[in-house]
Amino acid sequence: MEFKTLPHPSPTPAADRTAALVDPGFGKLFSDHMVVIDYVEGKGWHNAMVGPREPIALDPAASVLHYAQEIFEGMKAYRQDDGGIALFRPEENARRLNASADRMAMPHIPEDLFIEAVQKLVAIDRDWFPSVEGGSLYLRPFMFASEAFLGVRPATEYKFVVIASPAGNYFKSGVPAVSIWTSEYSRAAPGGTGAAKTGGNYAASLVPTREAFNRGHDQVLFLDAVEHKWIEELGGMNLFFVMDDGTVITPPLTGTILPGITRNSLIQLLRDEGLTVRAEMYSIDQWRADATSGKLLETMACGTAAVVTPVGTVDGKDGAFTIGSGGPGQLTNKLREQLVGIQRGAVEDTHGWVMRLD
């Protein structure tokens, strides 16, 4: 498919861009361009364009506005130590988007088209990499139902869009470990959409997330919807539990939690270290007991935005407990440095995860 490039009538002046990139925060600043590709049932994907980032015109009856038929991905482009640019496992993002599409009755986008769209945007907005330490270009590919109709059925028209956001650190600087609040709300139930990266799952997390913030915590923890005892995931991150016998536990992919690409990468890196990783159910009561006894050494949260982040304290209706010293653990720090090093070209990529773009 040929991409048409539309000139930007008024790109951000270089001086303004440079000033904004000194401290971009996360998800607040956006680059000049976007990619848009249309889909019509019977015709397929067509009309691929790279052009100015601008509002999307939607009919008031567009299906996404009424039935939430929408999916998205989160990924990053990284500036390499030698000045080049790379993506990290973009084919996995393409596969996960299509897995989400299956659950939401949406069309697949070919993996090579997904990756090409991302590459096109990074190429045209390569000057938007932030200068802040640890900065990256956060990429948000998403697909939504654009057909105008009122009726509960899968749409026949969609748009695939990619936008970019220069990003600094996800959590505020100076925090050695995050604090989490155990919610009594449920994020997803068996047979639901928990394993799909769809906006409705995140909408369901907003009230408990606000509750966590109001109580002074950084993130919210969700337990299973049936027994309300088994740990599933945070509002936007997977979890790992490092035990004193050299094993690491992570909740299993049973259809109610998102299969994180960072999670998958960490499992491989842990096994590279000779550690045993067990995907098994782990209860909130066992977490508290293991943290209290010292059997649990570290807990780490992971995701594209936050990378690898230590969990220091856990609070909830039964009171709070601390993990280790309440700060980052040795293994958490090592894995973060290793993963970030691979992404930025400072550590050898023995698994072929990095895709150079230059």
Automatic annotation (TrEMBL):
Pathway: Amino-acid biosynthesis; L-isoleucine biosynthesis; L-isoleucine from 2-oxobutanoate: step 4/4; Amino-acid biosynthesis; L-leucine biosynthesis; L-leucine from 3-methyl-2-oxobutanoate: step 4/4; Amino-acid biosynthesis; L-valine biosynthesis; L-valine from pyruvate: step 4/4. Signal peptide: none annotated. One of its GO terms (molecular function) is branched-chain-amino-acid transaminase activity. It is an enzyme of class 2 (transferase). Keywords: Amino-acid biosynthesis, Aminotransferase, Branched-chain amino acid biosynthesis, Pyridoxal phosphate, Transferase. Its cofactor is pyridoxal 5'-phosphate. It comes from the Bacteria. Its EC number is 2.6.1.42. It catalyses: L-valine + 2-oxoglutarate = 3-methyl-2-oxobutanoate + L-glutamate; L-isoleucine + 2-oxoglutarate = (S)-3-methyl-2-oxopentanoate + L-glutamate; L-leucine + 2-oxoglutarate = 4-methyl-2-oxopentanoate + L-glutamate. One of its GO terms (biological process) is L-valine biosynthetic process. The modification N6-(pyridoxal phosphate)lysine is found at residue 197. Belongs to the class-IV pyridoxal-phosphate-dependent aminotransferase family. Acts on leucine, isoleucine and valine. This is Branched-chain-amino-acid aminotransferase. It comes from Pontixanthobacter rizhaonensis.
